From TrEMBL, chain A:
Family matches, as InterPro entries: P-loop_NTPase, PRK/URK, PRTase-like, PRTase_dom, Uridine_kinase-like
Any one Gene Ontology BP term: UMP salvage
Known pathway: Pyrimidine metabolism; CTP biosynthesis via salvage pathway; CTP from cytidine: step 1/3; Pyrimidine metabolism; UMP biosynthesis via salvage pathway; UMP from uridine: step 1/1
GO molecular function, one term: uridine kinase activity
Catalysed conversion reaction: uridine + ATP = UMP + ADP + H(+); cytidine + ATP = CMP + ADP + H(+)
Keywords: ATP-binding, Kinase, Nucleotide-binding, Transferase
Superkingdom as given in the UniProt entry: Eukaryota
Organism: Mycena indigotica
Signal sequence extent: none
Any one Pfam family match given in the protein's UniProt record, by short name: PRK
Name the record gives this protein: Uridine kinase
Domain Phosphoribosyltransferase as annotated: residue spans: 304-526
Automatic annotation (TrEMBL), chain B:
Organism name: Mycena indigotica
Top EC class, one word: transferase
Swiss-Prot/TrEMBL GO biological process terms: pyrimidine-containing compound salvage
MF terms in GO: GTP binding; uracil phosphoribosyltransferase activity
Pathway recorded for this protein: Pyrimidine metabolism; UMP biosynthesis via salvage pathway; UMP from uracil: step 1/1
Keywords, sorted A to Z: Allosteric enzyme, Glycosyltransferase, GTP-binding, Nucleotide-binding, Transferase
Protein name as it appears in the record: uracil phosphoribosyltransferase
NCBIfam families the record matches: PRK00129.1
Similarity annotation: Belongs to the UPRTase family.
Cofactor: Mg(2+)
Amino acid sequence: MTESDWEGLVVSSHTLNLKWIQESKTMPPKLDTTGLQIKKNTVLVSHGRPPWYDEAGNRISDAFVVGIAGGSGSGKTHVARQIVRSLGSIPSVIILSQDSFYKKHTPEELAIAHANLFDFDHPNSIDMDLFSACLKDLKECKQSNIPVYSFTTHQREEEGKYLYGAAIIITEGIMALQDSKLRDLYDLKLFVQCDSDLMLARRLKRDVAERGRSVDGILEQYLRFVKPAYDNYVLPSQRHADIIVPGSNNQVAIELICTHIQRKLHERANHFRPKMAIPHLYQSPSGKKFPESTLEELQLTVMPKTRQLEGIFTILRSKTSSRQDFIFFVDRLSTILVEHALQFLPYADKSVITPTEASFAGTTMSAKHVCGVSILRSGGALERGFRRVFNNVPMGSLLVQSHGEHGEPLMLHVMLPVCVRQRHLAEEAFVFLLDAQIGTGAAAFMAIRVLLDHGVKQEHIIFVTFLVARGGGISILRRAFPRIKIVTGGVDDAMQEGWLDSYQGQDGRQVWAMLPGLGQIGDRYYL
Amino acid sequence: MATSSPVPPPQPATNKSQMNPLPPSVFTLPQTAQLEALYTIIRSKETSRGDFLFYSDRIIRLLVEEGLNHLPVVKKVVETPTGATYEGVGFEGKICGVSILRAGEAMEAGLREVCRSVRIGKILIQRDEETALPKLFYSKFPQDIASRYVLLLDPMLGKGRVPTGGSAIKAIEVLMENGVPEERIIFINLISAPEGLRNFCGKYPLVKVITGWIDQGLNEKAYIIPGLGDFGERR
């Protein structure tokens, strides 16, 4: 049954020393999870998710999965939340509750459930296949649409809940260690051990206070279902656990667990932006230098150089152009680019009858699902142009920002259209990915990885951009994703290394600018 | 147009399926599948008004973009925000639009999306029932039209009674009477009939014609087939 916060009964006075985290420069961004509202079945994002893939575009590692089992009232949720709080420095985490995976009920079962006679504590009440399938997807950094179970109707709801992008997954439930399919997915298995009388006391207190149940009713259910299930299934599953956590006064245990998780995450951290930005300056792992790619190797679809296009670019590149002009010509250029990019959609023959009753053998765009995804902020500058070409397709966005200290891209926000969220639709969807320019390629790389994680085919990703730096990250991007389409207004030759001075207390960091470039398109378009 | 232009103007169309030889002053859009898909939508009699508006606007924008490429440019060096210099081009010469009423007006919104705050003149030409020839009923132009490049707008070339292309020919005549040189006029239309193109280009070979699609011909009621019906009515 649902767990609630056991704050009232558990003595919790955790003052963890996070100093060692702050001293470590290479750690992911610092954040404070102590004040975080820790909701279940929600991806909690702190200061963004650093790259979870290498420069070849492959996933470096799976998400770190912790399974927490224990009796009802033992304090599993509390342990899960304490772990999240104490981790202190985490990119993104989700607490996945076993309650979401109660099976769909037949009408007969429903009647029993409403009479409080249904055994929710039996392993058979959980859809273990679905549970492990969802957890497997999440572990492999794919999206998952987990079921939503309503305790008021005792039924699974029609609409699921979309989850994506957690670097740490904490699964909790009385049967969390029950099924071998689930156990195989855990990196760390915990069992919360608690005395039966304490568990019953907590359960009584919770159900009376929060659910308005009678003491008699609670005791009857306890004796009929909860206690036998605990003795027969839950308690025996503790032999699978790596660590037995006490159900109260467990700060030391949690601290040890967090130290372990931190170390594992640290081992997985990866930093590759400097190498991406100007690839031919860096050595590849094999010691061989990346040669600068030729235009043919990059397979860019560059807009034909017409007088108007050249004139538009001249206005956009000039630093003296007014904001009004800049916005107008950005909108015009993005419209032209998106029109040009349409060549990568599939077309089928279609005949129509005209108002003059003649027939015309034409074509029709035959993609089942088309959507746009802009990489914020500067990708938003292409949205108006995109909308002039597509008035009726969904539009999503990704917010990728560079980390203030080391310039790594961080995924801060993922808002994708339904046709990408649902894996079976994503496999057929064509996605126009919009960003103002491909310089270091770090944001583009991350955005493409997000789409691939969701099941979008490489050849269905059409990247539309104003400008590509030939000497920049594009060659690594192309090597990692050889089949995506890249449509660009122009190609600049160089990337210039620079140093961004410290700003508002942040340290200065290395930045790269394109030459001759367009400047900061997001700033020029929006600010 | 300047011969030493930094970027060459568009080359004549290569699509000659409906008309061979194509007059050298005629330019079409690249006949791609996606363009064909746009035409398939606006040609279908099942298409709603909303879709007709949206998709015809898209074609008009493409046509205007193509038409503007015939305007001259000059070398221009600018400094970029990164401090680099860029050798680009600057637009040269003022332009204005002239729409042939009534259907040509429907192309003005598309023109303004590409050419912000462009001046637009208007011409109303109708058939004189006595002489059966096109007659100017009304015209209103920017005062300095003689010094501007003119984008003449009419969605269909060749529609209507004999002589086909007559109202466009009359419009050029009026523009030239107002001092606009023939070679400074760019005529933009979505669909043209070969008969109309032949008449028009025979009369004014220096006017650039930008047409989205060249259709089969005219039916007995002088409608372009397959065409798209009455453009003005469908907007």
